[in-house]
Design a protein that fits this description.
The protein is α/β, with parallel strands linked by helices. Helices cover 43% and strands 12% of the residues. The protein starts with a strand and ends with a helix.
Amino acid sequence: MPRSSHRDPDRIADDCRRAEAAGWAGVDLLAHRATDADPLDLVRAATTGRAVVADSITNTDQIQALASAGADAFTIGSAAFDGSMQPHAGTLRSQLAPVVGL
């Protein structure tokens, strides 16, 4: 799956169309690294194929907004380990419990 970190929704849409034409299942979109664009606009632009959003996913509101924008999946990295998903929740299982419940 190709990875796209462009910051322009039109470039994201073009990347997704090229990936789809090449037979790729979708793209890994690093939407939250964008500083000049709304990450949700980038996700909306990527909906021509499958979009997996990675990077800086830190709360369930963000996950629900990504899903509403058309993201098919997402990854959670350090937020699950450093306690930012649910401060004071303790274990990794407790950090991820709200996500699993969505």
